[in-house]
Amino acid sequence: MSSSVERKWDLIHNELIFKNDQFKYSTSVIVYPLILVFSIWFVFWYQVRIDSGIRHFGIYPQKTEGLLGIFTSPFLHSDVSHLYNNSIPLLILSMALFYFYKNIAWRVLFFGIVVSGLLTWFIGKTGNHIGASGVIYMLVSFMFFKGIFAKHYRLIALSLIIVFLYGSMIWYVFPIKDGMSWEGHLSGLITGFVFALLFRSKVAKPEKYLWETETYNEDDDPFMKHFDENGNFIEIESEAVKDDFEPEVDSKSEKSKIQTNYIFKSASEEE
Check: CATH 1.10.150.120 for 24-198? Predict the structure, then answer.
């Protein structure tokens, strides 16, 4: 019995710590996304200045040598325009990820790169698939669907902002532009949706009212005691508050009291 009670209190304690740790700003919200974007720019500088051959370390679908590109392709870009178009959304989305989902941010990023890259390797057309756009689509999809599934008002607001900023990206999961890896975009979209379903722990949950908790007992609710079984209001008289205050007796007032003396006289004395 005692072990179950201790376990319950441990769960409550951990839940309180988790709630207090949610949506708190830290330097990691900015530092980690900046490091991620800087590393991509550094790789591009290395590609342009030192070895342009590294751009061939992308994903080559259905080829064994192309599996290495699952890990390297997000850091490779064809030109400055391609790099710039991916850098800004990647920075904004990763900052949102580390703020709203900081407890699972690294797992989402790492496994997102792996799963979306592997899916691109399976369904992609022949060629060299490079760029961080697959990761961007994964982040957009994850944060949009996760906010809807979690039903927390802040995460839902984030989902609406994501739609407003990047909703038009949905068209690029279709083959509407030559030279663009729409398979990578589609892979990222699918991966983000799956992650939104799988990652349930350590995610902010909507706050519950007292009557929504599992431990709620209607009989112990002082408000519900004002209603009978038919829902009719019952006026409960509160107990009169006993006034234990005793007025102090002023010594001066005691002295100033009027004393009345009665003198008895017989009838003979009056005559």
Answer: no
